Each structure stands twice: as structure tokens, then as C-alpha cells.
Amino acid sequence: MGTKARAERKQLLLFTSVILGSLALGRGEVFTSEPHVRVAENKPAKLSCSYSGFSSPRTPSYEDRVTFSHSGITFHTVTRKDTGMYTCMVSEEGGNTYGEVSVQLTVLVPPSKPTVNVPSSATIGNRAVLTCSEKDGSPPSEYYWFKDGIMMPSEPKGNRAFSNSSYSLNHKTGELVFDPVSAYDTGEYTCQAQNGYGTPTRSEAVRMEAAELNVGGIVAAVLVTLILLGFLILGIWFAYRRGYFDRAKKGTSSKKVIYSQPAARSEGEFRQTSSFLV
């Protein structure tokens, strides 16, 4: 569930009588005893809403899954899609004044197993980004990274086990950034997602190797490429000096056509009278 869906404002009008455009905020009071309701998914939930100063409030009907009363609304069962901000509005029947109060409903869903993106190798001195995420947790999960089974602190320099590393981690987004990568960063990395509801879940462990840039290998590859290119150029030059290209050109233009005039023949006599040589 995305942030946008969680921040969605639900307009469940508990007591209303006329179009909002013709209403004005009145002297009546609308209040709630619980402005933030947290309830597990597939359980009932009540959003309290009380009022005073309205002589004859009116209650509209709603979906079958919600029951209205003078003290609020009750969901028979909630799903993660019901998470959001709800507005309780009260107005007098036949009147033109209203009052309102908002209640935040958070449907609790434990996090699912997070997925991680960890590079199999990283070059020492370069930047490396590891990511972790899961889609089901409500409220949104926070993420914690482990290296070789040890939880990584937010400030590596203050921890002896990680003092040789230079990284930053964001518990909200799940990003772990090494900048730069050091030889000490080689290891198995695991991400844990937790949101205060249910059991925290961990990803599979993925190993990252921190390696030096192989300058010698790069130089050797460049030299081999240059040598092969030199042999190719030398071969072309040798073929040109030997005249292979000239012979090829002559071969394509040496075709000849020989035409013989027909000899005189008597009527009824047939024989080959012309020939072509290509």
C-alpha cells in the first residue's frame, strides 16, 4: 500500500442534511474520544464521533459494511484499503450550520518478506547502493540492515565493528549506501522489515564482494587488443603489397564474349551457327 493511499481522506458524513456549499460552521460542537484508531485487518473498527448543540441531527445511510449511530460509525470488518483520514460532519436537519471532526484510521497489517537488491561485487573506492522494500505492511515498515548477522548501526563510526566502513542508511526507504566502498564491506547482507505489528520479517542473505580495481588486467586487455589490431593492419598491408587486391579486381573484369557469325546454309539444314564464350 503506497503513501498516497494511506493519506487518502475519507468523507464519511455521519450527520448531514444539505449540500456542503450551503452550510456554514455553526455553534454546535463535534468531537471524538479517539482521534487515531488502530485495528487489525479483518476486525471490526469504531470511529467515535459525538456532538452537542444540534437540535435535530440527521443520519444518512451508507454501505452495508458500516453502521451509523449517534456516537460514531462502526465498520463490521476493515481491510487495508480502509486506512485513511475520516471526517465526521454534523448538521441540523433543515438548518444551514455544521460542525466536523477528523479521525485517522490505521488498519494494521504485518510486513511481508522484504526483497533486496544487493550487488554481487562492488569496486573499492566507488559508490554502492543496496535497497530493501516490502509492500504489505501497515503502517509502513521501517528497515534495518544486518551484515554477517550483526545489525548495522545508523552511525558506523561510533561502533567498533563498523568503524572502518563509510555508509549511510535510511530506515524509512530501506536504502543502504556505501560511499565509498571499502575492503571491510565484503560480507552477507540481510534486511529486516518491521512496523510494530506482527513479527519482523527478514530477507534472504545476499553476499557482496568488495574488490580492488584490476588495473593490471585492464592494461593487459588493452595491450592484447592493440596487438591484434596491429596484426590485422599488417595483414591487410601485406595483401595489398602482394597484389591480391589488384588480382581480385582483374578477375571481376576478365570475362570475354566471343560471337561467331553464322555460316551460309542450305534450306532445311540445321546446325549450330553461333557460340558464346564467357
UniProtKB/TrEMBL annotation:
InterPro entries found in the cross-reference section: F11R, Ig-like_dom, Ig-like_dom_sf, Ig-like_fold, Ig_sub, Ig_sub2
Family annotation (Gene3D superfamilies): Immunoglobulins
CDD domains listed in its UniProt record: IgI_2_JAM1 (cd20950)
Annotated GO biological process: cell adhesion; establishment of endothelial intestinal barrier; intestinal absorption; regulation of membrane permeability
GO cellular component: bicellular tight junction; plasma membrane
Subcellular location per the Swiss-Prot or TrEMBL entry: Cell junction, Tight junction; Cell membrane
Keyword Transcription: no
Protein name per Swiss-Prot or TrEMBL: Junctional adhesion molecule A
Transmembrane segments: 215-240
Span of the signal peptide: 1-28
Stated family: Belongs to the immunoglobulin superfamily.
Keyword Electron transport in record: no
Lipid bilayer topology: Single-pass type I membrane protein
SUBUNIT field: Interacts with the ninth PDZ domain of MPDZ. Interacts with the first PDZ domain of PARD3. The association between PARD3 and PARD6B probably disrupts this interaction. Interacts with ITGAL (via I-domain). Interacts with CD151.
A Pfam family assignment: Ig_3
Organism of origin: Suricata suricatta (Meerkat)
Chain ranges of the Ig-like domain: 28-106, 114-207
UniProtKB keywords: Cell junction, Cell membrane, Disulfide bond, Glycoprotein, Immunoglobulin domain, Membrane, Phosphoprotein, Repeat, Signal, Tight junction, Transmembrane, Transmembrane helix
